[in-house]
Every structure is written in C-alpha cells, then in structure tokens.
Amino acid sequence: MKQVFINIQSVYEYLDKLGPRKSLQLLKQLGYEKVLHLSSKIERDRLIYLAKEISDEKLISIISTIPEKYFIEILKENSDEDIVYFINHLSLSDISLLSTSVHPADIRLLNTAFGREKTLEVLHQVGTEKVVGLTSVLGVKKILELAEEIPIEILLRLLSFLSLNQCKKWIRKRGITEIPYFIKSLGIDNVLLTLDYIGFESCLNMIELFGPQKLLEIAYFLSKMKF
Q1: Number of domains observed in the structure of the chain
Q2: In this predicted model, which residue has the larger pLDDT, 29 or 58?
Q3: Which of 19, 88, 116, 180 yields a CA-CA distance of 20 to 30 A from 81?
C-alpha cells in the first residue's frame, strides 16, 4: 500500500509540474513502469527539469534509444544545464554515439576545459565520429595536453583537414609530441599547404626518413633558394 501511495504521488508530481499534456505524453510513450523506474534511479526534480527543457520527441527518443546505464551515468557526471544544452544542439545519432563510446567523465573534462559552446564547436567542426575515434586512441587527457600547447582554433583546422584514419596513423607512428613543434616552426597555414601539396603519406615518410629537425632545416634551405 505504501508503494502504491508513492507511485500515485510521483505521477501527481509530474502532472503538477509538467502539466497534463506533457505528463500524459511521456507516460503514454515511455510507459508508466518505465517512468516510475527512472524516478527510482534519478531524482524526480532532475527528470522534471529535463522534461521541461527538452522536446517530448527528443527526450522520448533518447530514453528509448540509449541504454539506461549510459543515460544514468551521463546524469551523474554532468550538470542538468550542460545536458540540456548538448541534447538541444546535437542530433540523436551524435548523442547516442557519444553516450555509448565516451565516458561521461571525459565529456565533463572536455566541457570544463573548453566550455560547452567550444566543445560543441569541436564536435560540429571536427565531427563527432572523429572526436570519438581520437578519444579512444589518445584519451581525453592527451587531447587536453595538446590543446594547451596549440590554440584550439589552430588544432581544429588541423583535425578538420586530416581524416580519422590519417590521425590514427600519425599517432601510431609518430605520437603527438611533434605536432606542436611543426605548427610552431612552420605555422598552421604552411603545415596544411604542405600536407595538401605533397600528400599525407609522403609527409609522413619524409619525417621518418629525415627526422623532424632535419626536415625543417631542408624546408628552410629550399625556401631561400632562387629559381
């Protein structure tokens, strides 16, 4: 009897704070038991806030698509405001990929370091799939270390230019320590121009053949030659 009373009280709270239309829509689409189950795992006030700030269609799709354990982990690691911001600005496929492939604590680290607007820009400009791929290869802390040495706008240009497979190949063969060295020595425009003109594979082969320092010496020497 006590549990029945708690359940009725929960439904009444949803009706009271969300209004009949939205409450009944959620109960209808998700099911009475699903809503009450989530209420037992997540504070009702948080669920009510999310339901108010996110469209019915998107919220229902997220809860129905993303496994519950990932959804709850995201809520534990991130603020309601940040969750609402990303849900409202990302596609369902991107949300699903991030929530199941990147640990919520890592998302929080990126968000803390860059701010949610810049983090969203990274996801949009570089592409969510590439960000997830780089995170799995490097780890978020290494990405943040790289971003400390290279302004994020410049890093975005490089990551946008290279494919995910090229990024992975570079990391596997050369690591990341030489990236700031080349960008600081040549400038991002010259780095991108070289990659575009000579080609990624040729650049990588030349670095492995001559080494970074000798290759830069050759580049400076050639730039001074008169034709």
Answers
A1: 2
A2: 58
A3: 19
